[in-house]
Amino acid sequence: MDRRPVLIVLMAGTLFGLCIPFSKALIGDIDPIMMAGLLYAGATMGTGTWFLLRREVATPRPSSRMSRSEKLYLAGSTLTGAIMAPILLMVGLKWTAGSDASLLLNLEGVMTAVIAVAFFHDKGGRWLWLALAAMTVASTVLSYAPGGGFGGNGALLIVLSMLCWGIDNNFMQRISHLDPIKLSTIRSGIAATFSLSLAFVLYGGTDLAMVMVYAMIIGAVSYGLSNVLFFVGLRHLGSSRTGTLFSVGPYAAAMAAIPLLGEPVTVQLVVAGILMAAGTLLLIRERISKD
C-alpha cells in the first residue's frame, strides 16, 4: 500500500491543528471574524504565490472549464468550509480554553465520515467505525470537565464549525480531481474577501499591523498549505478516511498549547493521545484490508 497519501493527510491535519493555539494567542487582540478573514487572506497569498510560481517554472497543465455541478460543489465548499466554519471556530475559540477547542477539532473526522457514508455512498468498514469511536471518546475525555460540561456556547459553536467542515470535506471530495492549488486559492480568496469585509463593516479598521501579519502567516500554513495537502489526500483516500486521519490535528494542537498557552499536561491529555493513536492505527488497518 502506498503510504504517501496517509502521511500527506497526517501532515495536513497537524498543520491545521496548530492553527488553534496560535490563533488563541492572538484572538484577544483581533476580533474573531477579522481573525478568520486574515487567516484566509494569508492562505490566499500563500497558495496564490505557489500557483503563479508553478506556472513560471513548469509547463502549465491543460485546463478545462468546470462543469456546472463542479461549480456548485466548489460554491458549497467555500460557503460551509471557508466562510461559515472558520467564523464559528474563531468566535467559539474566544469563549473556550485552547485545550478544549483543540480536542473538539477531532469531531471533524467524525462528521466527515458519517456524512460520507450516510449521504455520499462512501464505504466504511468496521475498522473505520472503531477508529471513529476511539477518536470520539478521546475528544470527550479531553473536553469534558466534571461539573463544567463541555465549555458552554463556545464549545457548541466549535461543534457546529466541525459539522460545516464535515459537509465541506465531502463537497471537496467531489472536485478533488481538479487542481488543488487553484481550488484552494479560489476558496481562500472568496472567504477572505467576505470575512474581512464583514469584520470592517461590524467593527471598523485596526492598526495592529504586526498582529495582522502574524495571523496571515498562520493562515498561509495552517489553512493554505494544509488545504492543498488535504485535497491531495481526498483524491487518494476518500472523504471518510481522509477526515479521520486529519483528526490527528487536535492532538498536535493540544501539544502545542502546552508551551504556547501555558496549559498543563493532564491525565486526560495522555489518555486521549493513546486513543487517537489507536484510532489512526485502526484506520490504516482498515485501509490495508480494502486494498
Give a quick summary of the entry.
The chain is mainly alpha-helical.
Provide mean pLDDT, rounded: 79
Helix- and strand-based class? mainly alpha
Strand fraction equals: under 5%
Overall geometric form? globular
| Relative helix content | over 70%
Query: Which regions are unreliable across 5 or more consecutive residues at pLDDT < 50?
Result: none
> How many helices in DSSP terms?
13
User: In total, how many beta strands?
Assistant: 0
The main pleated sheet reads as:
none
End-to-end span in angstroms? 7 Å
* Overall number of domains: 1
Q: Round the Cα radius of gyration to an integer and report it.
A: 18 Å
Series of secondary-structure elements, N-terminal to C-terminal: HHHHHHHHHHHHH
Pick out its properties:
0% strand, 81% helix, mainly alpha, 291 residues
Structure report:
- By secondary structure, the chain is mainly alpha-helical.
- It has one domain.
- The protein is built from 13 helices and no strands.
- The protein has helices at 4-17, 19-26, 32-57, 68-94, 98-104, 107-119, 126-143, 152-174, 180-203, 209-237, 239-246, 248-261, 267-290.
- Helix 1 packs antiparallel against helix 10, helix 9 (180-203) packs antiparallel against helix 10 and helix 10 crosses helix 11 (239-246).
- The mean pLDDT is 79.
List the helices and strands and how they pair.
Blueprint: H1 4-17, H2 19-26, H3 32-57, H4 68-94, H5 98-104, H6 107-119, H7 126-143, H8 152-174, H9 180-203, H10 209-237, H11 239-246, H12 248-261, H13 267-290
